[in-house]
Amino acid sequence: xxxxxxxxxxxxxxxxxxxxxxxxxxxxxxxxxxxxxxxxxxxxxxxxxxxxxxxxxxxxxxxxxxxxxxxxxxxxxxxxxxxxxxxxxxxxxxxxxxxxxxxxxxxxxxxxxxxxxxxxxxxxxxxxxxxxxxxxxxxxxxxxxxxxxxxxxxxxxxxxxxxxxxxxxxxxxxxxxxxxxxxxxxxxxxxxxxxxxxxxxxxxxxxxxxxxxxxxxxxxxxxxxxxxxxxxxxxxxxxxxxxxxxxxxxxxxxxxxxxxxxx
Length: 263
Ligand code: ADP
Ligand code: MG
Known about the structure:
With about 260 residues, the protein is an alpha/beta fold. The protein has ten helices and ten strands. α4 crosses α5, α4 (about 115-125) runs parallel beside α6 (about 160-175) and α6 (about 160-175) runs parallel beside α7. Adenosine-5'-diphosphate (ADP) binds near residues 34, 39, 60, 64 and 65. InterPro entries: AAA+_ATPase, ABC_ATPase_HisP-typ, ABC_transporter-like_ATP-bd, ABC_transporter-like_CS, MetN_ABC_transporter-like, P-loop_NTPase. Its EC number is 7.4.2.1.
């Protein structure tokens, strides 16, 4: 029921550069400090095209900092981060353009309160991607439709439920036609009855081939959508595993201990 063309559109269009086996995101020997605090300790992570990687681990472990570093919202102190073979520049116009390749959805929905849902979704494409307004609106309505909130397009964020706002935030990210989507605990701020409507949208995106990095404690989502689980604690990647192995037979005591507390 989903055409190849639609899948390609959601996945960011035809890929530039080496379309073969080259990974979409490469994090190489990355270190980051906040003052004396060593928050990312020699992180290495590879995300292939179309792959879904779930990052899980205790609070304060560096998961958000890693996501923000991949999107250059945080500078790193050493190492490199490549998205589609390109290192993001530290600043300037090129940064805004390349940053748009990485969509990001946060725990707090971060929608512009004084703009309608439709305006929230069209703003980036019009301002950064220079898409004509009419075309941006058409694409925005398609995206709002696929996240199930087309009927809310003219409303303001405060008029929507948390689950609807988060789906609007996902549509807003997708409107930039990102090559990879980062989700940082996208359902943690939601009332329980709204968690699934957001996870369902994410599962569908994964199924359509979107490359995704997802920080979440939602085991059901990890099992159904992820190819890889990364367990992060104290600024380190402690274990990388398949979801099946990780949840039934984790290799490290640290991961087993964490799982025993949350399962
Ligand atoms: P997680 O997302 O896994 O909970 P974070 O990446 O948010 O972890 O935080 C990792 C560590 O970095 C924590 O000790 C946190 O207190 C610290 N930290 C995060 N952001 C900042 C900041 N802007 N300034 C100083 N310390 C920070
Ligand atoms: Mg966090």
